[in-house]
Amino acid sequence: MKKTMSLLLVCLLPLGAMAQGKVPAHPHIQFETTEGKIVLELEGRRAPITVRNFLRLIDSGYFNGTVFHRVIPGFMIQGGGYKQNLQLIETDDPIANESGNGLSNMRGTIAMARLDDPHTANAQFFINLADNRSLDPSPDRWGFTVFGYVIEGMDVVDAIARVRTGPGGQFSQDVPVAPVIIETASRVVYDD
Fold first, then answer.
1. pTM here?
2. What are the residue boundaries of the structural domains of the chain, listed by start?
3. Is 127 helix (H, G, I), strand (E, B) or coil?
4. What is the pLDDT tens value at each position of the chain, 192 positions in all?
5. What is the DSSP string of 30-89?
6. Listed residue (51, 71, 35) closest to 155, CA to CA
7. Which of 7, 67, 56, 6 is nearest to 31 (CA)?
8. What string of DSSP letters covers 131-144?
9. CATH 2.40.100.10 for the 24-187 domain, yes or no
């Protein structure tokens, strides 16, 4: 019993520390792209570590001038890590994977891109063009953390999915021939 209680306390400590950061429950963010505007609602309660990190990057201007560097019709569009010349942008340390949060990689959701190691996400994200449940966690593997969804501009996401792609930089395929640029990324503040 003592061992179980200690484990429970250790598991709860990060939640208390997380609460101190006061992650907004449902912040809205906006990408102004060369194809149009995309507005997303983030899930601060279900993916607090991811949303805190994403808002920090937005507030710092990190995403301004980045491109959607990987576009795969019927699957997803990926951005958040490269400038127009396809040079990788330096990032901070990776964040913990929150893929077991009950959100699924469905059409119109935004999720964190990562390497094979499940805890390597930081800034790169993707927007699902289809229901990609194969990217969700299962009992034997981690998934890709979903942390929000498109609430305006899915037509823009679909337009990006239709751009012509080919090889570019270090990538052998799926790179837009004409760059699709995130001109600005910002929080959306609504007037009451």
1. 0.88
2. 24-187
3. strand
4. 333 333 333 333 333 333 446 899 999 999 999 999 999 999 999 999 999 999 999 999 999 999 999 999 999 999 999 999 999 999 989 999 999 999 999 999 999 999 999 999 999 999 999 999 999 999 999 999 999 999 999 999 999 999 999 999 999 999 999 999 999 999 998 765
5. EEEETTEEEEEEE-TTTSHHHHHHHHHHHHHTTTTTEEEEEEETTTEEEESSB-TT-PBP
6. 35
7. 67
8. --GGGS-BTTB---
9. yes
What span, in angstroms and rounded, lies between the C-alpha atoms of 18 and 50? 11
Report helix, strand or coil for 160: helix
Separation of alpha carbons 163 and 176, rounded Å: 6
Q: Which residues contact 9 (CB under 8 A, 6 or more apart)?
A: none
Write the CB contacts of 147 (distance below 8 Å, at least 6 apart in sequence): 42, 43, 46, 47, 50, 51, 54, 98, 101, 103, 110, 111, 112
**Token pair for 179:** 């760059």
Burial class (CB in 10 A: 0-12, 13-18, 19+), 89: middle
